[in-house]
Amino acid sequence: GESQNTLLSYFGRAQYDFQSKYLLSGTIRRDGSSRFGDNTKWGIFPSFSAGWRISEESFMGNVNFVNNLKLRAAWGITGNESGAGNYGHIALLEPANYVIGGGYAVGQAPSNFPNRDLSWEQAQTINIGVDFGIIQNRIYGSFEYYTRTNSDLLLNIPVPSATGFTRALTNIGEVQNKGWDLE
Residue 45: pLDDT above 80? Predict the structure, then answer.
């Protein structure tokens, strides 16, 4: 009943701030998981964001009640390996009882439908928002529109029982969430 998995990650990030008005950020992440086969073990997940502090512009100098006004946008992809379970990409054996010549014998039988193409679930997020602070930042808020698309979902699908199994874990399906956040 024991199992083991390994996750190894590399992460890099660069940021640029010009006059505290214009902000850029980029991130790249490379993750490797033992839950996937050699061809799909590694995933690369980038993200980018940009911001404009409108409140720092010279034309906002006469607007005293606005202390912070920032427009921002971001795009990124993240990966998820937790739905894969351990060893789902390789054929596994489990104990099985057999009847041979009227007697019982213990042996082994395949326990899963191996999928060497099993890979990372991916979530792509896009958001655009406005942050504000007024009256000496006593009132602060944020308004944002987002869309998040999860693809290559790790799901068990039915397979013909002639294969010896009733289900197989595969990357299939997509879910999209979108909406508005008000803080």
Answer: yes
